[in-house]
């Protein structure tokens, strides 16, 4: 493929393509995006020498997160970045690396664009964190990007995602953790349990909801009927969604004795809504979260949650990305969740 082919695909001049690739001249963002997409689709390489260097990597490591302001992603990204400054590494791959945090905002398109840019920069490694978007086209596109990155010498590590080919994966035990969390409430005697889920198109959301419902099904509670859906409300992984979803759950069933939140940030909103409705935690309604973010133990009451060792997982992802730790068997390792039973859960009153 030639530069002229890229220009034709992007419907711009060859000079514009050159400006985008060199990065030395200002170009409209929409034009730049169109050119980069054409480059990616045509697998264009700038010139012969560059092609010969395709297997040589830079000192750059890209860390993709949904939202760096979210403590879940901030903890993982911080731990990955800390590993970049550590001495050592594989012979011939250098020591210290420059970690660049790529904030996708949850946008599938932006995620793919970052992967393209990191391939073009011949990144030494790419770490993708958090749940994946559940859409077959996007999943196929990410798998293709990972394959191209790996072929050019870039290590690809997933942290908190389902496995894909050409990537080392640290997958979180979201199903098992959610099941154990709901079993904890069932053991306490709860039978009317609401659930505040995350966005429906995320793997983390589906896996945690499946674990929750598996526990209910095993205990013969709710069952696979409409009631199961009625006591589930989807929203974003933020406090406001937890607040609004709790009001909706109470509107649907005022007899709820417990609410499970898909993460700790949602759980904060759940607690706020319950207090504003004059309900006590846990005397009237027990509340549980997931992740064990730093504020969870200091909430009032302290939040029952499933602890994921996010810092340890991020540090391990960083070491794997730099070849400082052996690959797990089959390229996949499970990160287990641990129940942290605190004072926000108790047997139902009366």
UniProtKB/TrEMBL annotation:
PROSITE patterns reported in the protein's UniProt record: HTH_LACI_1, HTH_LACI_2
InterPro entries: HTH_LacI, LacI/GalR-like_sensor, Lambda_DNA-bd_dom_sf, Peripla_BP_I
Keywords: DNA-binding, Transcription, Transcription regulation
The UniProt record lists the keyword DNA-binding: yes
Record bears the keyword Transcription: yes
MF GO annotations: DNA-binding transcription factor activity; transcription cis-regulatory region binding
Pfam families: LacI (PF00356), Peripla_BP_3 (PF13377)
Ranges where the HTH lacI-type domain occurs: 1-55
PANTHER family registered for this protein in UniProt: LACI-RELATED TRANSCRIPTIONAL REPRESSOR, LACTOSE OPERON REPRESSOR
Protein name: LacI family transcriptional regulator
Organism for this UniProt entry: Streptomyces malaysiensis
């Amino acid at each position: 493929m030639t530069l002229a082919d890229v220009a034709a695909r992007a419907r711009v001049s060859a000079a514009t393509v050159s400006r985008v690739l060199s990065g030395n001249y200002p170009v409209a963002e929409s034009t730049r995006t169109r050119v980069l997409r054409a480059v990616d689709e045509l697998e264009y390489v700038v010139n012969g020498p560059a092609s010969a260097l395709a297997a040589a990597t830079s000192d750059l490591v890209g860390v993709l997160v949904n939202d760096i302001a979210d403590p879940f992603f901030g903890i993982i990204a911080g731990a990955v970045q800390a590993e970049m400054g550590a001495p050592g590494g594989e012979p011939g791959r250098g020591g210290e690396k420059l970690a660049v945090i790529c904030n996708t905002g949850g946008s599938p398109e932006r995620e793919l664009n970052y992967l393209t840019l990191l391939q073009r920069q011949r990144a030494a490694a790419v770490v993708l964190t958090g749940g994946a978007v559940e859409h077959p086209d996007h999943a196929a596109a990410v798998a293709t990007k990972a394959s191209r990155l790996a072929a050019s010498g870039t290590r690809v590590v997933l942290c908190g995602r389902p496995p894909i080919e050409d990537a080392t994966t640290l997958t979180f035990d979201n199903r098992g953790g959610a099941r154990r969390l709901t079993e904890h409430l069932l053991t306490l005697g709860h039978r009317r349990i609401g659930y505040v889920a995350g966005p429906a198109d995320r793997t983390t959301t589906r896996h945690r909801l499946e674990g929750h419902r598996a526990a209910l099904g095993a205990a013969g509670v709710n069952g696979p009927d409409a009631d199961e859906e009625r006591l589930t409300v989807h929203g974003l992984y933020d406090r406001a969604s937890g607040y609004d979803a709790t009001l909706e759950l109470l509107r649907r069933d005022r007899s709820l004795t417990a609410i499970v939140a898909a993460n700790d940030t949602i759980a904060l909103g759940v607690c706020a809504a319950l207090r504003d409705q004059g309900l006590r935690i846990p005397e009237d309604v027990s509340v549980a979260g997931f992740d064990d973010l730093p504020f969870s133990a200091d909430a009032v009451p302290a939040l029952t949650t499933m602890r994921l060792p996010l810092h340890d997982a991020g540090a391990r992802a960083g070491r794997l990305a730099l070849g400082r730790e052996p690959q797990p068997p089959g390229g996949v390792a499970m990160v287990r969740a641990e129940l942290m039973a605190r004072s926000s859960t108790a047997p139902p009153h009366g």
